[in-house]
Specification:
The protein is an alpha/beta fold. It contains 26 helices and 21 strands. A seven-stranded parallel beta sheet has the order 3-4-2-5-6-1-7, with helices on both faces. It has a six-stranded parallel beta sheet with strand order 8-13-12-9-11-10, sandwiched between helices. It has a three-stranded antiparallel beta sheet with strand order 14-19-15. The longest helix is centred in the C-terminal third of the chain and has 23 residues.
Length: 638
C-alpha cells in the first residue's frame, strides 16, 4: 500500500470512507491552501473531519481549541484508537502533566493538541507554542467567541493573541449554530484575513417540527410516544422533573430512564449506554445530556420546558433523525411557560452587589487569601457551595457566569477526569529502586505490564483493575501509589468528577472588582432579545416552523416544509398558499379597526371565494387569532 498523501488517502486509511460529505472537501482544500476559513455545518455534519484530515496531510501539529472537556477527551481517545497521536491540555491538570504534554507536542511527533480556551494565555503554553511546528489552528464551537452568540466564553478572546506566535498558520473556525451577526463577529474577533466562508443549509427536510399548547403535558407526551415509534429524548429544565416525568412514562408502559449532571458518573454512563443500546426507549434529561452523542436513530425529541433561545432549541431538536429518516421535534408549552421564559431573561443578569457577594463567598469557600489564587484551579461542588452559604443555585450560577464574563474566573462543566500516572525516573534508576525497595517491586512490574508510555507521558489508570491484577486491596494499592509519589518515583493524580473553577486574577478586595454598567446592560438586552425571539417562535401559529427557523439563521426558504404543525393544519384546508394568504390578509384588513359580522365580512371580501374565507376563519379561530365576541361579531385577538 502506498504512503497516504492526499485527503482521500487519509480519509480511507483512518476512517474507512471513500468519499467526503457535502462541503467537507471544499473546506479541507481551503485549509490546505492556507486560507483562513469559517465553516458552519449542522450538528452531526462531520465538522471534526474538516480539520483532522488537512492536519494529517500537512507536516506538523494541529492545535484544536474546544470549550467542552469531555468532548476533547473523546476526540483524543478516538484519534489514538485510529493510530493517530493526539493529546489534550485541560483545566485540572498539574503543572508537571502540562509540562510533559507540551514537550510531547514539540518533540514527540504528535499530530493534535486539544486545548481548553482558559489555557491559551498561560505563559508556560505561550513559550512552548513558539517551539511547536503548528500547521493549523482549529476553533471548535466558534460561536463561543462572540458576545452575540448564545454560549459566549470570554477565554475564547485569547485566541487572536496567540496568532502572532504562529504567523502564516491558517485558522479554521467551526460551529453548528450561528446567526449571520455571529458569523461576522467570529471573523472579526479571530482577525481572519479574507476568510473563505462555507455555510451548510439549516434545513432538515426529514424533520417535522411541532409547537403544541397543552396544559396537560404528561398526557400529550404519552400521546406522542404512542403515536410515533422509535426512541426519544425529553428535555426539561431541572433535575427533579427528569425523574418525575420518567417515572410517569414507566407507569404508562413507556420504558424510560432519567439523566442529569447530579447523578454519580457510573450511573450516568450506565443510563446513557442503556438508551444508546435501545434497552430503554426514552431518556428524560436536562441539557447536560446530548453533547457529543451521535445516535442516528433518534425519532422524537420533546421539549417539555422551553429553552432560553432558538440556537439551543435548534441544536437540541437537531439530535433527531441523523440517519435521514422521518423524525419529530415537539415543543410543549403553557401560558405560564411563556411568562417564565421572559422572566428568566429579565432576571438573568444579577445586580453588581449580588455578584460581589458571591465572589466573596466563593473566595472564602475555596480558602483563597487576598491577592492570591492567580492561575490556581479548584474542584468545585456548586451544590455544596450554595448549601453552605444558603444561596439560590440559579442566582449563584448567574453570578458565576458574570464573573466569568468579566474574566475574574473560568468555570468548566462537570466532567470525569480519570486517575493518571507517570514515572518520574528513568528505566535504570527505576531498576535500582526496585532492587533497593523490594516491597514496591510487584506493583511497579504490574504497572509496567498493564500500561504503555508511563515514562513518556501521563497515562490514564484504573485503580480497581490495577488492584485486581496486583492482588492487592484497593486501599493498600492507593496507599502504595501515594508512597511512591512521596519518594519521587511517580506522579499520581486521583480521579475527579467535579466542575472546576480557575482564578484568572488574584483575589481582589470587594471595592476593586469592576463590572462595567454597559456590559451588564448589553448582556441583559441580548438575553431578552433572544427570549423574545424564542417566544415569537412558540406563539406564532401562522408561519411554517421550518421557514421561521431558517429565517432566524438568515437563510431564505424556497417553500414551506409541508410537515410542521402549521403546514399540516393548512394542508387540511385544501387551499394553496396563495389562496390562504389572500383570505388571511383580507380578514385581517377588515377586522383591524372594528368587529364585523360574518355576513358583512363575506360581502367585503368579494375577490375571495366564500368557502375559502370560511375555512381560513375557522383556522384562525382554532389558533386563537380570531374570536366571536359577546355581540356575535368577529374580531381579532390582540
Amino acid at each position: 500500500m502506498h504512503e497516504p498523501s492526499t485527503p482521500h488517502d487519509f480519509l480511507k486509511l483512518h476512517w474507512g470512507y471513500s468519499a467526503f460529505r457535502p462541503m467537507q472537501e471544499d473546506i479541507i482544500n481551503a485549509v490546505l491552501e492556507k486560507k483562513d476559513t469559517l465553516a458552519l455545518l449542522p450538528t452531526g455534519g462531520g465538522k471534526s473531519i474538516c480539520y483532522q484530515v488537512p492536519a494529517l496531510v500537512m507536516p506538523g501539529i494541529c492545535i484544536v481549541v474546544s470549550p467542552l472537556i469531555a468532548l476533547m477527551k473523546d476526540q483524543v481517545g478516538n484519534l489514538n484508537a485510529r493510530g493517530i497521536k493526539a493529546i489534550s491540555l485541560v483545566s485540572g491538570m498539574t503543572k508537571r502533566e502540562i509540562d510533559i504534554a507540551l514537550d510531547n507536542c514539540i518533540y514527540g511527533d504528535y499530530k493534535f493538541l486539544y486545548i481548553s480556551p482558559e489555557r491559551l494565555a498561560a505563559e508556560l503554553f505561550i513559550e512552548r507554542l513558539k517551539l511547536m511546528p503548528v500547521n493549523l489552528l482549529a476553533i471548535d464551537e466558534a460561536h463561543c467567541i462572540s458576545q452575540w452568540g448564545h454560549d459566549f466564553r470570554p477565554p475564547y478572546r485569547q485566541i487572536a493573541k496567540i496568532k502572532e506566535h504562529i504567523p502564516g498558520v491558517p485558522v479554521l473556525a467551526l460551529t453548528a449554530t450561528a446567526t449571520e451577526e455571529v458569523r461576522d463577529d467570529i471573523c472579526v474577533q479571530l482577525e481572519m484575513k479574507n476568510p473563505c466562508r462555507f455555510t451548510a443549509s439549516f434545513a432538515r427536510s426529514n424533520l417535522s417540527y411541532a409547537v403544541l399548547h397543552d396544559d396537560n403535558k404528561f398526557q400529550r407526551m404519552l400521546k406522542v410516544f404512542k403515536g410515533v415509534s422509535g426512541c426519544g429524548i425529553v428535555y426539561v429544565r431541572n433535575r427533579r422533573r427528569t425523574q418525575e416525568i420518567s417515572d410517569w412514562l414507566v407507569k404508562n408502559n413507556i420504558s424510560s430512564t432519567f439523566y442529569h449532571a447530579g447523578l454519580p458518573r457510573e450511573l450516568r454512563n450506565k443510563r446513557q449506554d442503556e438508551w444508546m443500546q435501545n434497552k430503554v426507549r426514552v431518556i428524560v434529561a436536562t441539557n447536560a445530556f446530548g453533547m457529543g452523542i451521535d445516535k442516528p436513530d433518534v425519532r422524537i425529541v420533546i421539549h417539555a420546558d422551553l429553552p432560553d433561545n432558538l440556537e439551543s432549541y435548534y441544536q437540541e431538536a437537531g439530535r433527531v433523525g441523523r440517519d435521514g429518516k422521518h423524525s419529530f421535534a415537539v415543543a410543549l408549552y403553557t401560558e405560564a411557560d411563556v411568562s417564565d421564559l421572559i422572566n428568566r431573561a429579565q432576571n438573568a443578569v444579577p445586580e453588581k452587589s449580588e455578584i460581589i457577594r458571591i465572589y466573596k463567598a466563593l473566595s472564602n469557600y475555596l480558602q483563597i487569601a487576598l491577592h492570591s489564587g492567580y492561575g490556581e484551579t479548584y474542584d468545585f461542588d456548586i451544590a455544596a457551595f450554595t448549601n453552605n452559604y444558603q444561596l439560590s443555585p440559579a442566582s449563584a450560577l448567574q453570578c458565576l457566569k458574570m464573573l466569568e464574563l468579566t474574566e475574574y474566573i473560568s468555570l468548566s462543566d462537570s466532567f470525569y477526569m480519570p486517575s493518571r500516572l507517570h514515572f518520574e525516573i528513568g528505566n535504570m534508576d527505576l531498576y535500582k529502586f526496585q532492587v533497593e525497595q523490594v516491597r514496591y517491586d510487584h506493583l511497579i512490574k504490574t504497572l509496567l505490564r498493564t500500561y504503555e508510555g508511563l515514562f513518556d507521558r501521563f497515562a490514564d489508570i484504573n485503580e480497581n483493575d490495577l488492584a485486581l491484577k496486583a492482588g492487592l486491596p484497593k486501599v493498600e494499592l492507593i496507599q502504595q501509589l501515594k508512597q511512591l509519589e512521596h519518594l519521587n518515583v511517580i506522579s499520581y493524580q486521583p480521579s475527579s468528577d467535579q466542575p472546576r473553577i480557575s482564578f484568572l486574577q488574584p483575589r481582589l478586595p470587594d471595592d476593586e472588582l469592576v463590572f462595567p454598567a454597559s456590559l451588564l446592560t448589553n448582556r441583559k438586552k441580548r438575553i431578552l432579545e433572544s427570549a423574545q425571539k424564542m417566544k415569537r417562535y412558540i406563539t406564532d401559529h401562522f408561519h411554517c416552523r421550518s421557514v421561521m427557523l431558517l429565517e432566524y439563521f438568515n437563510e431564505t426558504a424556497d417553500q414551506r416544509c409541508g410537515t410542521c404543525d402549521y403546514c399540516r393544519q393548512l394542508n387540511k384546508l385544501e387551499l394553496n398558499d396563495l389562496e390562504f394568504k389572500m383570505a388571511e390578509e383580507t380578514i385581517r384588513q377588515h377586522l383591524e379597526d372594528k368587529a364585523v359580522s360574518l355576513h358583512d365580512l363575506a360581502a367585503l371580501s368579494a375577490p375571495v371565494k366564500e368557502e375559502n374565507l370560511a375555512k381560513v376563519i375557522q383556522f384562525m379561530m382554532d389558533n386563537s387569532d380570531v374570536r366571536i365576541n359577546s355581540n356575535g361579531l368577529l374580531e381579532l385577538v390582540k
